[in-house]
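Meet our chain:
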Amino acid sequence: MKRRMKVAGAPAALVAVALASFLVTLPHSVEDFIFGVPARFGVGVLTGAFLLGAGYTLHALGIVLASHRRPSGYLINLFVGLGWFFGAALDHLPDVLFSASYRAGASSKLLEVLIMLFGIALVVLSSRLLLQHRHGRREHDRDMTDIRVKSGH
């Protein structure tokens, strides 16, 4: 029998945004390699590709964990969102805003803007889910304390 993954509510939104972020970050990352961005930071092509692959693997793990409502998945997505947002903003935002001929033109600028928007969305959704989890845990602990007090334990 096949098992189907059920994800509802806010975790589903987080998973959808995280998956969508792959659609913009992957072509952008290829473009970074074409334009020599790893070399600008003193990183070779193979090392850069390995680090990028490790980052995508970690992000995929975060997506799977989030789809199972695991707080560790929310946390991974939060840090991935921060990384993409600040990486894109610090490295590319001036070019996106002020350069008339940025890389492949409007499509490259659009990728940068989408990366920043998806990054912010990952941070907001992950933070919300982490806070809900923390609040739910406190409610559960309070309920368990009430049960112990009432039963005399």
